[in-house]
Automatic annotation (TrEMBL):
PANTHER family named in the record: 6-PHOSPHOGLUCONATE PHOSPHATASE, HEXITOL PHOSPHATASE B
UniProt entry keywords in alphabetical sequence: Carbohydrate metabolism, Hydrolase, Magnesium, Metal-binding
CDD domains assigned to the protein according to its UniProt record, in alphabetical order: HAD_BPGM-like (cd07505)
Molecular function, one GO term: hydrolase activity
Listed name of the protein: HAD-superfamily hydrolase, subfamily IA, variant 3
Family: Belongs to the HAD-like hydrolase superfamily. CbbY/CbbZ/Gph/YieH family.
InterPro entries: Beta-PGM-like, HAD-like_sf, HAD-SF_hydro_IA, HAD_2, HAD_sf, PGP-like_dom2
Pfam families recorded: HAD_2
Cofactor(s) in the UniProt record: Mg(2+)
């Protein structure tokens, strides 16, 4: 049996799917980088890059990343809550501006969810994004109906890469970890899923996670239809 066949079998036999959101269901990473770049440029004259996003923020939540990034650049005395609020204001504005042209679902996700919808699987989101933001985007793309719950950063004391978020989701399903499969794309998110003991499907986003997704995942896909 090949790796692909083994992974498809594991997915078919799973009783729960635990999905990250940004970069796993919807391609929001570039927009998120732009949102942070606007805030850091306006407030501190810093040039926030994609590499900074991947190092400090991707997959782990904005507040911890803001603190580490600014302290690394020698900046103190800032309001994390205030900066986080500005970030979300910019992100919401950019979503409204770019929703029709630049934001889309990851390839094959709608077909994947539709294929498994009648097979009694528990399907939840485990994310560092805000719940209301996730629900709005899932509703816009017509896939919110496939998910029964969204676990956001507010549901845990320790965010990703700590496994608590995924462990909470597993507990919610009432299933054993071996009966669940996680879908992730970020460095910290993959660490979180593996730390929880989950079989993990990595979502390859070329140019964003090429250097670690294969190392941290049990199997890697570019299109969810590969698993149908």
């Amino acid at each position: 049996m090949t790796d692909t066949e083994r992974s498809k079998k594991r997915v078919r036999e799973a009783k729960a799917f635990l999905f990250d959101f940004d970069g796993t269901l919807v391609n929001l990473d570039k927009l998120t980088v732009d949102s942070f770049a606007i805030v850091f440029k306006e407030m501190f004259k810093l040039d926030f890059t994609r590499d900074d996003f991947m190092k400090y923020i991707s997959g782990r939540g904005s507040k911890n990343g803001i603190v580490e990034y600014l302290e690394k650049n020698g900046i103190k005395g800032f309001s994390v809550e205030g900066l986080n609020s500005e970030f979300y204001k910019n992100k919401n504005r950019l979503i409204e501006e770019r929703l029709e042209d630049e934001i889309y679902l990851l390839p094959g996700i709608k077909e994947f969810l539709e294929n498994f919808k009648d097979k009694r699987r528990r399907v939840v989101v485990v994310t560092s994004s805000r719940k209301e933001h996730v629900e709005k985007m899932l509703t816009h793309f017509g896939i919110y109906k496939y998910f029964e719950e969204v676990f956001d950063r507010s549901t845990v004391v320790k965010g990703k890469p700590d496994p608590q978020a995924f462990l909470n989701a597993i507990e919610y399903t009432g299933l054993d970890v071996e009966e669940c499969v996680a879908f992730e794309d970020s460095f910290y998110g993959l660490q979180s899923a593996k730390g929880a003991g989950l079989f993990t499907i990595g979502i390859l986003n070329e140019g964003w996670n090429d250097d670690f997704v294969h190392k941290l995942s049990d199997f890697v896909i570019e299109d969810y239809r590969e698993l149908i």
